[in-house]
Design a protein that fits this description.
mainly alpha, 2 helices, 2 strands, 52% helix, 10% strand, elongated
Length: 63
């Protein structure tokens, strides 16, 4: 049971960690925030494909 990574960004899960990750991918349910992020991302990609540019606003995150 370990997580191995290297300088090139590859991550290898083994043992129980690999099983937990596989089960989460297969049976897990996305959070509402993740769904909203995907929705905004899809809209940005469509905008970029259509006009060649995309507009977004950065906002500060309160701690």
């Amino acid at each position: 049971m370990s997580i191995k990574s290297n300088a090139f960004g590859r991550v290898t899960l083994t043992g129980a960690d690999a099983k937990k990750f596989r089960d989460q991918v297969t049976y897990g349910k996305p959070k509402a925030a993740a769904k909203e992020s995907v929705k905004r991302g899809v809209a940005m990609v469509r905008d970029m494909s259509k006009s060649g540019k995309s507009h977004f606003v950065l906002k500060t995150q309160s701690r």
